[in-house]
């Protein structure tokens, strides 16, 4: 656990994943919205909420992209990252 806290404290911009969930920490006050692009060109709203002191745990739907990779060998090979919007 201390290793996770140390990693979190030393690198704010790195992606952290715990048990298959992405972990996001927002600073300040206000609200947030997290979007994720899908292979068919649409964008899915994953989560909205109020910025608090606790980190946000989020399961990103990567299955759609993995399914697209198996069908189309010329598909983009890198998984897109979620878009985080704070307001």
State the low-pLDDT regions, or none.
1-11
Number of helices: 2
* Structural class determined from secondary elements: alpha+beta
Amount of beta strand = 25-35%
Spatial extent as radius of gyration? 15 Å
Helix and strand run: HEEEEEHE
How many β-strands, per DSSP? Answer: 6
Explain the overall architecture.
By secondary structure, this protein is an alpha+beta fold. Helices cover 21% and strands 33% of the residues. The chain is built from two helices and six strands; from the N terminus they run αβββββαβ. The protein has helices spanning 2-10, 63-71, and strands at residues 16-18, 21-24, 31-37, 43-50, 56-58, 83-86. The strands form two sheets. The protein has a three-stranded antiparallel β-sheet with strand order 1-2-5, with no helix packed on it. A three-stranded antiparallel β-sheet has the order 4-3-6, with no helix packed on it. Strand 1 and strand 2 form a beta hairpin.
Note the topology:
Blueprint: H1 2-10, E1 16-18, E2 21-24, E3 31-37, E4 43-50, E5 56-58, H2 63-71, E6 83-86
Antiparallel strand pairs: 1-2, 2-5, 3-4, 3-6
Summary tags:
single chain, 87 residues, alpha+beta, three-stranded antiparallel β-sheet, 2 helices, 21% helix, disordered N terminus
Quick recap of the structure?
This protein has two helices and six strands; from the N terminus they run αβββββαβ. The protein has 87 residues and is an alpha+beta fold. It is elongated and about 45 Å long.
């Amino acid at each position: 656990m201390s290793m996770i806290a140390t990693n979190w404290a030393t690198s704010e911009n790195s992606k952290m994943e715990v048990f298959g969930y992405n972990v996001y920490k927002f600073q300040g006050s206000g609200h947030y919205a997290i979007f994720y692009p899908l292979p068919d060109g649409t964008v899915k709203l994953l989560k909205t909420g109020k910025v608090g002191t606790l980190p946000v745990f989020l399961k990103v739907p990567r299955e759609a992209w993995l399914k697209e990779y198996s069908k189309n060998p010329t598909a983009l090979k890198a998984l897109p990252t979620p878009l985080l919007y704070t307001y």
